[in-house]
Fold this sequence. Notes:
325 residues; alpha/beta; Rossmann fold; Dihydrodipicolinate Reductase, domain 2; 9-stranded mixed beta sheet; 5-stranded parallel beta sheet; 14 strands
Amino acid sequence: MLKVGIFGVGHLGRFHVSNWQKVKDAELVGFYDPNVEAAKAIIGEFGLKQFNTAEELLEVCDAVDIVAPTTRHFELCEQAIRKSKHVFVEKPLADTMEQAQKIVKLAKEANIKVQVGHVEQFNPAFLALKGYDLNPMFIEVHRLAQFNPRGTEVSVILDLMIHDINIILSIVKSDVRNISASGVAVLTDTPDIANVRIEFNNGCVANLTSSRISMKKMRKMRLFQKDAYIGIDFLDKKTEIIQLKDEADSDAFTFDIDTPSGKKNISMSYPHIQDTNAIFLELEAFTHSILEKKPTAVSEVDGMMAMEVAHQILQKIQFSNLQAK
């Protein structure tokens, strides 16, 4: 049984507490959070033991779940890793690239498991594509959210867009060649809306738009590849695949069209979406990676790579805004 301690029991931390109690091979032993009101709420709802210091909690657990603000990620990760504790840490991995690089180095030296909370990797709409050959050459993403003061200590790039950056880097097996970006700070001191174009060495291009000041919510990704279109709706949990085939597909709605290379069939299918809880799945996967000694689903290196692209985007936006003045 894996003994787990949780750091941070605010809005998202509460969901983590609830889901840890459902993970079969894990025992949530307690939490540390200096916020008195948040601590009282968790004790009242779950009866979970509160520890007075991070050090006290680290002494009684095998692994930690860090759901504290991004500015505290490095400090808590470092404390845990130096005590040889496995680490689950919410995205982004750290506040700066230097911190992220040090976490990667420390984790390797300590030979412990680190998983970064890029929860969209466990979204059932994305999981429905497991086993499908994804080789996109053009990607279009829209991630829009209504304004919420929570989480605005970081830019919309590190708050929202980083989800899609992580997904894209996991799909496109190629290095980034060029990034162009523009963004505007509207309600906070960092970009609240941004549009980004990422070009890869293999020719793939990804256009991403993220906003946290929209009137409506949207979390959609569209993939275009040779003879296929794949649409993923992370918000409504829907996936569609439209393919060009030589023969009719009996398992999907099809109709034929004339093309320069002859008659083809267009197949439209909607993969079955499992009714699953993404937070539960990522915590369960982290637990199994430790107990079964296998790689984590989203490693510290994956988290650092997503951060690296995100920080390049922020630099491009900063340069673009300076040029405009």
